[in-house]
Amino acid sequence: MMKVMLFMKMYKQCPRCGKKVLINETCQCVIDNKRKKKNEYQKKYYQNNKKAVNMIKNKRWRNLRKLIIERDGGFCQRCYHKFHIFETEELQVHHIKPRVDFPELIYDEENLVTVCKQCNLQLGTRHTLDFDFKPEKISVKLQGKKEEK
Ligand SMILES: [Zn+2]
Ligand SMILES: [Zn+2]
CB of 17 within 8 A of CB of 27? Predict the structure, then answer.
């Protein structure tokens, strides 16, 4: 009796397109849709990434970068807070909330922190810092630097 059951083909109706599909299979339309969505996501990610890269290729960013490093005393905040080391080589300005996902925060001083190359790599694109640091606004400083054309 069990054997009969095993040879019976069980069907279900695809909730998406209404087609009859085998109970243990996924309808092709669902597979196609998943693929389409994935492609769209990748395309969007690529575009956002391109945009984000361009946004740190201008003078506005270069000026801000300089000011952030100044604000942070010219040393890696992660090395300092985590290991009590003053690292002043290969400094980079890290976006706490990643550029690609938060393009609106690219020039936000409170989203920026000075770290060394190694720390930047280790931080990667996680959305938070792994050390205790609260970036401050430097807008007052920025006002004073307006003479730059
Ligand atoms: Zn379907
Ligand atoms: Zn560091």
Answer: yes
